[in-house]
Fold this sequence. Notes:
The protein is of the alpha+beta class. Helix content is 22%, strand content 38%. The chain has four helices and 13 strands. Residues 1-15 have low confidence and may be disordered.
Amino acid sequence: MRGEFxxxxxxxHIGPQGETGQDxxxxxxxxxxAHPAYRGVMRQTTTMLEFAxxxxxxxxxxGEIARWVAATGIAEGLASLLCRHTSASLLIQxxxxxxxxxxxxxxxxxxxxxxxxxxxxxxxxxxxxxxxRATLTGVTLSIPVIGGRLxxxxxxxxxxxxxxxxxxxxxxxxxxxxx
Length: 179
């Protein structure tokens, strides 16, 4: 299969044309005995955080996630977040200008408006539009951890997007693996 690499031992690969070689990472050879993934010292930890939302809108949760990451003691790794709901979602967005979130909310309203044109309305007229908005924005995030901190940009924040009108308690599952 073109472009596929098959592993056949620590730090070696077979390339798409059958060539073999040492694994490389950022232009440097991976030395298996020196790499934590090969020494078996990679750690992982999980938790569940719960957040109260005031109703439809965006609740910044960056601080809570960052505090949890720092408390784990893992300096380098990958944080995975999952919103355990189908009418709420997660996104990374600008955390400086409120207008960005207001514009994003209006845009989602236009893409998935409330109305009687949906077959699914078991929990009210905002039910199906909430599912559509969660589909558009996504329920998972993966964020690198570098130096014990989330590798977010200067103006980036993690937001829990509530797509229902009523307040809810939302659970976010977190998993961090690294060293």
